[in-house]
Amino acid sequence: MIRGLFTAASGMTGQQFLIDTIANNLANVNTNGFKKVRVDFQDLLYQTIRPAGSSTDQNTRVPTGIQVGHGSRVADTQRIFSQGNFRLTENPLDLVIEGDGFFRLQLADGTDVYSRDGSFTLDENGQIVNSDGYILQPSITIPEDATDVAVGRDGTVSVRVAGAVESQEVGQILLTDFINPAGLKAIGQNLFVQTTASGPPIESTPGRDGLGQINNGFIESSNVSVVEELVQLIIGQRAYEVNAKVVQTSDEMLQTANNVKR
After folding, report:
1. For 19-50, how does the pLDDT look when each residue is reduced to its tens digit (9 = 90+)?
2. pLDDT over 90 for what percent of the chain?
3. Model pTM greater than 0.85?
4. Backbone Cα Rg of the chain
5. Domain map of the chain by residue range?
6. What's 118-159 look like in SS3?
7. For residues 219 and 119, is the Cβ–Cβ distance under 8 A?
């Protein structure tokens, strides 16, 4: 009964973590480029009371043993990098990656960070930056007198300046990918940083080396499915309730044992 209390408590702790993760997914259902997180569980240590194959007499062995588990725990949280839906904005500096890859930006301290959020704008120097002012790498500067900006599917940035008939190329957007994107570390603000698990960054031209292509005038929405998250929420809630019932039942059994009289 005591074992059952702690076993059920571990299940309640795991389901609470699942609910917290679902809450974060739902909170970011309208966050540009957000990738949902999945929780994976694993069972805990087993106590072997009788090993399988042990002898009962000189000529007989038991086909199965006796083991009792001690609950479950969170094994990992895995970020799912499936493609989100595209939303038309008609803003030429809004970019969407159709396929794999990340935009590379640079923080104020020089750290490279990566994002699927392609909502860009210009700073006071004409450089392409995200909503927090982090500069898109390689840096691209749009001339002050530019009247039209176009981004090709291969990342080529062209502008048309006042008085000019033809467009001129001012830069090239590159994309970055990783062998294991799920190993990237999320730091908030729609940004990720490289880790040992993610592998080194692989940078190339959009449309090459397995990278996706770029479309401008669109934004990638979150890949969170509200219906799927609500289903998981119900499952997590019921699992929590069942484990709480086990705690209650174990407590009642202990109470009955305490009240036994000769």
Report:
1. 999 999 999 999 999 999 999 999 999 888 88
2. 75
3. yes
4. 27
5. 2-78+224-258, 86-220
6. CECEECCCCEEECCCCCEEECCCECCCCEEEEEECCCCEEEE
7. yes
